[in-house]
Amino acid sequence: MDRDQIFAWVQQQYGTKPDYPWQDGNAVLRHKGNQKWYGLIMEVGREKLGLAGDGPIEIINLKCDPGLVGSLRGKPGFHPAYHMNKEKWITVRLDGSVPEEEIKKLVDLSYQLTGPRKKG
After folding, report:
1. Which long-range contacts (CB under 8 A, 24 or more apart) does 33-37 make?
2. Helix, strand, or coil here: 91?
3. pTM score, two decimals?
4. Nearest to residue 108, comparing CAs of 41, 56, 31?
5. pLDDT 10s digit of each residue in the chain, 120 long?
């Protein structure tokens, strides 16, 4: 799943569009109401993730259940959150190493975790 596929999916699922607050290619996915981030798509150097090779790689940072973060980090395509709270966020590579359905589930989880708090 690449950035364009994610953008199309979140538009369909949640009615949200990417926001580009830094006037570069890095995109924030926000809730419409509370404006909280539920995703951050960006390019980072492979060395930032401890990967071999040259050139940037596309990733998405997603909020995650802290109990799930540790087990995900042991799987291919997952890394400690880049530039985010490493206990509550996870970095997912968008290079085909993580199946589309797993990315969608994690985007949905992040959307739920960052949504407005339920009263009562």
Report:
1. 33/116, 34/114, 34/115, 34/116, 36/114, 36/115, 37/63, 37/114
2. strand
3. 0.93
4. 31
5. 999 999 999 999 999 999 999 989 999 999 998 999 999 999 999 999 999 999 999 999 999 999 999 899 989 999 999 888 889 999 999 999 999 999 999 999 999 999 987 765
Of the candidates 3, 9, 5, the residue with the CA atom closest to the CA atom of residue 108:
9
Phi–psi pair at 111, nearest 5 degrees: -60, -45
Is 21:28 a contact under the CB 8 Å cutoff? Answer: yes
Q: What is the sign, positive or negative, of the torsion defined by CA atoms of 95, 97, 99, 104? A: negative
SS3 state of residue 40 = strand
Most distant CA atoms of the chain, gap in Å: 51
